[in-house]
Sequence to fold (438 residues):
Amino acid sequence: MSRDTAELVAFDDVWNAPPSREHRRGGGRGGVIAFLVVVLLLLLGGGGYTAWALTAPVASPALSVTAPPAPVGERVALALPTQGAAMVSVEGAEEFLGPDAAGVWAATGGNDVQPLASVTKLVTALVVLEAYPFDGPADNGPTLTFDAADEDLYDKYYAMGSTIAPMPRNSSMTLRDALTAMLVPSASNYAEAVATWAFGSAGSFAARAQDWLARNGLRDTVVVEPTGNSARNVSTPSDLLALARIAAAQQTVASIAAKPVAQAGVAGRVVNTNGLLGSYGVTGLKTGNLGPGTHLLVYRAMLDVGVGAPLTITGVTTGAESRDSLTASVASLLGSIRAGFHEVTVAEAGRSLGTVTTPWGSEADIVIGRSASILTWSDTPVEVVLDYRDPVEYADGEVIGTLIWTAGPETATADVQISGAIEPPTALWRLTHPEALG
Fold:
């Protein structure tokens, strides 16, 4: 054998080298046969072929890789009320819930006209603030002074069984405090006093309110007095949903409605009738009822579901039998929305995606490199994309690609890698498979 031939035979890389010392030791009978074949070829003058066969490139291993199936989460049942009516809109999750979610995403119970009750006081506040707007959160508005007629309102609404708050004769308070007494505990004597102060009489207020409702597109809502004690004050769930959006966008109303308790001037310490404040991200807006079966709530919630910023939930629930059942039904609905966003396992480390196989019969697995999960809504399918390339070293642990899962704005990734070593071709295989050599 010439020196040049000996140097070629000694060349060692992954695919094109003679077997290592360890491999020759483990080769047993095959190693002896390979040695005898080499000697025979050299004796017969085949040194050129031998050098070529032992160093020539071999055909690349074949990859067989398939992306895992797209996972589907468990379907979540939305807990809409079983009594009365409800409408809900959701902003901030359009990628999951669809582009119409910010309109009316879910509804039940129809859209019939029903008593507006104390939710009327939201309309009263909005109409008054349109006439007497505040100049930012530091502005408390003009000062109201209550006379004997105002003081008599306390007795009037007490006799009606309506909510009231102290209003001593000749006492004064800011409009902000008066609105707080009206909205937080839902004091009816303050609703009438504020409306009369702003527009001269309850009748003048009613005319202004109807004009305001028409201009704001609330054409199925009727307000004949400022407190909601009259059953002639009516609205529909769709109008109430629109009213909730308007009230939530009015900074003064939204900030007052968000207070669980407050100090309201001469009315003293007042407690909000909305028992959901602070739960499920609820920040308002107003409760109302005219007895069993008429309890209603219009609300705004900033609901944290674990994806980006909290979702903005605007909703209305009507027709509940009691305040407790109303609170429970809205809490269940918001809880089901939050539960609907859940982590779905998309990858388990070590799961096989296929194999890499050499022409000489050595084989290794192609596996997912790590476990992964992704946040999605209910049973929305998750999209999966497999991107891979031919290996370079064909070594155990070599990363050859990536799996990408997408759900709405969320993504998760995991490496695709080789598991197990690829054995190099033996000298015997090289010498006896010239058709597989380059």
